[in-house]
Write a structure and sequence with these properties.
Helix content is about 55%, strand content about 5%. With about 190 residues, it is mainly alpha-helical. Helix 1 (about 5-35) crosses helix 3 (about 50-60), helix 4 crosses helix 5 (about 105-120) and helix 4 packs across helix 6 (about 130-140).
């Protein structure tokens, strides 16, 4: 290889590296605007922690929340969170099936659609972006799955060990106290 060819290849590699870093910075900024925690940024980009921390502070004007991400599937199986989780996961699965999207792009678009739907219905969203991202990870890892309700036919997030033959969703058979609380913006079970 000649010196000119080596120099040209080095420039092309440097340009590719710069473009990749710019894409990752753009993704990180989008995730921060959606409310992603720093751990999500670390998982979805290859940017160093210090760079992500600085970027987070620049975008939000404050330090990121401390503490670990929730790591339990139980939250998504409770009555109201399950309905929200099911809506989000059904949107995400539809996007993955019908559009050529990267996993994180599907999560971002599904969360935007979920949040918009909640706003239009006047319901307080129970899923933050980070919870929605975690839900997607649980479903992809088969720690949670979508089950078809035997009464209404809709798909709901469920424990992977349930009996699918007799599964009934929380909308067809809500728990005794479901929707009786006074919290504004929540789902209500009208008598």
């Amino acid at each position: 290889m000649t010196a000119t060819a080596v120099a040209s290849e080095a420039r092309a590699t440097a340009t590719t590296r710069i473009l990749q870093e710019a894409r990752e910075v753009e993704l990180a900024v989008q995730l921060i605007h959606l409310g992603a925690r720093l751990q999500v940024l670390q998982s979805e980009t290859s940017l160093p922690y210090e760079r992500l921390l600085k970027l987070y502070k620049e975008v939000t004007g404050r330090s990121p929340s401390k503490g670990q991400l929730p790591f339990s599937t139980d939250y998504f199986l409770q009555w109201q969170p399950n309905i929200h989780a099911s809506l989000f996961e059904n949107i995400r699965q539809s996007l993955l099936k019908n559009a050529a999207l990267e996993d994180i792009e599907a999560v971002m678009r599904a969360w935007r659609l979920y949040e918009e739907q909640m706003r239009l219905c006047g319901i307080e969203p129970l899923l933050s972006f980070t919870r929605a991202w975690r839900l997607a990870k649980f479903c992809d890892a088969k720690m949670l799955m979508r089950a078809r309700c035997t009464h209404c036919g809709a798909h709901f997030v469920a424990d992977p060990y349930i009996n699918l033959r007799h599964y009934v969703c929380g909308l067809c058979k809500p728990p005794a106290r479901a929707g009786k609380g006074r919290a504004s913006g929540g789902l209500r079970a009208d008598d």
